[in-house]
Amino acid sequence: MKEIPDNSVDLLLVDLPYGTTQNKWDSVIPLPDLWEQYHRVVKENGAMIFTASGMFTAQNKWDSVIPLPDLWEQYHRVVKENGAMIFTASGMFTAKLILSNPKDYKYNCTWIKSKATNFLNAKKQPLRKHEDILVFYRKQPTYNPQMTSGSAYSKGIRKDQITGSYGDFRPVLVKSKGKRYPVDVLYFKTAEAEGKVVHPTQKPVSLSRYLIRTFSNPGDVVLDNTSGSGSFLVAALQEGRNFIGIEKNENVALFKKQKVDYIEVTKSRINQAVAITDPAILAHLKRINLLDVERK
């Protein structure tokens, strides 16, 4: 990630290792290092969005938490000042991630999944059916609310109100033509509903596309520095965004004790996505040679 130019990323969308499983790859990255890089590459008004789950009790190398100070150093370098930095997370990893950079943390959404987990502990604990989506940024990033449909209404004139939370409310006509602003609880089916699953923590492309549409614009640059099977990259392609993906676990036994080359998996998924992507987007990708994957 140190090779990425400063302030070049519009949206950081990452599914970091949570450090919650017995998988060797699930090691938590040092957060301070991550934040340094994120602040460097993400634009000042770019969003930073993360997914995460569970506690920092990794017993597997792939699920080891990356040193967060190192990550933040890089994130701050490459993400534009108005770029969003978005992570998935849950449990103690949510707390750890927020506390690693409370200055940039703004809010979280809850992803309700179609399929629960934690069945081995079902007699001891509730099944787990949600993950957090953490939103960080330094300056207000792009925000395109994904509106939903409802019934139109008119509730008449709201009288003057005084509250300690938001200040004075002036008289206003309360009405809606049927459009509803999004809330912070999101329902999306898990990756199994979209087809073959090739990674233990594979995220659904549908959720990824929703987040990318919300926090970036067509032509923006999306970074995922732990890209795994490439769900966020496929989503970026389908939404007409440029993207940078980084994955170190090449040709390793991460899934059902089978060796999987996640670079090749990502290339294959991108090529499959090309077949159903808007022709105008494909023309842009060919011009910039985006579909070539470089190994280092």
TrEMBL record:
Q: Which domain of life is it from?
A: Bacteria
Q: Which InterPro entries match?
A: DNA_methylase_N4/N6, RM_Methyltransferase, SAM-dependent_MTases_sf
List the keywords (alphabetical).
Answer: Methyltransferase, Restriction system, Transferase
Under the heading Pfam families, the entry gives: N6_N4_Mtase
| Domain DNA methylase N-4/N-6, first and last residues per copy | 9-252
User: Does the record carry Phosphoprotein as a key word?
Assistant: no
- Indicate the enzyme's highest-level EC class: transferase
Gene Ontology terms describing biological process = DNA restriction-modification system; methylation
For molecular function, the Gene Ontology terms on record are: DNA binding; N-methyltransferase activity
**Which EC number(s) does UniProt give?**
2.1.1.-
As for family, the record states: Belongs to the N(4)/N(6)-methyltransferase family.
Protein's name according to its UniProt entry: Methyltransferase
Question: Organism source for this protein?
Answer: Lactobacillus crispatus
